[in-house]
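ok so for the tutorial part 2 we go from a plain amino acid sequence to predicted structure tokens. step 1 is just haveing the sequence, like this:
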Amino acid sequence: MKFFIDTANLEQIKEAQDMGILDGVTTNPSLMAKEGITGTDNILKHYVDICKIVDGDVSAEVISTDFDGMVREGEALAELHDQIVIKLPMIKDGIKACKYFSDRGIKTNVTLVFSPGQALLAAKAGATYVSPFIGRLDDISTDGLNLIAEIRHIYDNYAFDTQILAASVRHTMHVIDCAKLGANVMTGPLSSIVGLLKHPLTDIGLEKFLADYKKGN
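step 2 — the prediction. this is what the tokens look like for a chain of 217 residues:
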């Protein structure tokens, strides 16, 4: 399972990268705004700065909602760095743009996916990644993890190459459950990754080992 971090915060990206387990980054306009990154030139520079930190794919989202606009933005983003993945919305023109980019060997991430049918269309269009938002489904009392299971079943039926990128991951158990269900990638906050380190018995055991060492030294 690949670990992506969902942020535009360079310090958090560096921290995850330093752990040696980071495979990529996902961002969106909301995350950019949260870090105070505004203006086209600043946003484009920030994507490049992220690519300089990580070795893997970096999803950069288009703002346009029409085909021509998405193609224009996506091509500009793809030229920034070879790690850039074009993030496209799950709408009709988004699927058209996905097909356009996939036919040209440019990686894509179809985002805002909330149903198996949407995920099927993304795979048919050749998406590199499909991003089901499990946390947002949980927010409306719908089982987000069930969506991961349904997409996994469909993709396995037809041997689609599209990778399931579990998005809107909120906590550590989301990560574990997505791994059990066969998601190819998870993307979430740094806390959801660091949380995997924690177990009270680890802390107790380490404390005892250190105490015993001190007794004999």
